[in-house]
Amino acid sequence: MSEEVELTVVTMDFHATNPDRLMSVLAKYVVLSRGHPGCRNIDLCASVTTPGRFVIIEKWGSPTAQKAHFDSDDMVEMARACSGLLERPPAIELLEGISAHDLA
Fold first, then answer.
1. Per-residue pLDDT tens over the stretch 14-58
2. The pTM is what?
3. Which domains does the chain have, with CATH numbers?
4. Distance in angstroms (rounded) separating the CA atoms of residues 32 and 25
5. 47-79 b/e with 16+ CB inside 10 Å = b?
6. How far is it, in rounded angstroms, from Cα 47 to Cα 38?
7. First-to-last CA distance in the chain?
8. What per-residue string of b and e applies to 14-30 under the rule 16 or more CB within 10 Å gives b?
9. Pairing of the two strands 39-46 and 53-60
């Protein structure tokens, strides 16, 4: 029997003043965060239409796992490393996964 999952989806939208440095910071964050408990997937995307815009899309197995991740050392390190690399604070959105499921 499959375990009950209450998906939480997070998007983080960044606008860079230094795209190369920001991409490096975000890529490290994504790789480290994929190993966190409850992580279903995390993707880093670069906008094709808006230069310097990066979006991280995260899928968590539960709101508890997502909150624990946001309180993690990796999240804090990423936030600190973004200092001086952003045009403005990132837009962070917490979403309920209505039709977000794993295909495998």
1. 999 999 999 999 999 999 999 999 999 999 999 999 999 999 999
2. 0.89
3. 19-96 (3.30.70.100)
4. 11
5. eeeeebbbbbbbbbbbeebbeebeeeebbeebe
6. 27
7. 16
8. bbbeebeebbebbeebb
9. antiparallel
Give the separation between CA 94 and CA 5, rounded to whole angstroms.
16
Among the listed residues 4, 33, 30, 36, the one whose alpha carbon sits nearest the alpha carbon of residue 101? 4
**Distance, CA of 4 to chain centre:** 23
Task: State residue 6's pLDDT score.
Answer: 79
What pLDDT is stored for residue 7 in this prediction? 84
Other CB atoms within 10 Å distance of the CB of residue 31: 12
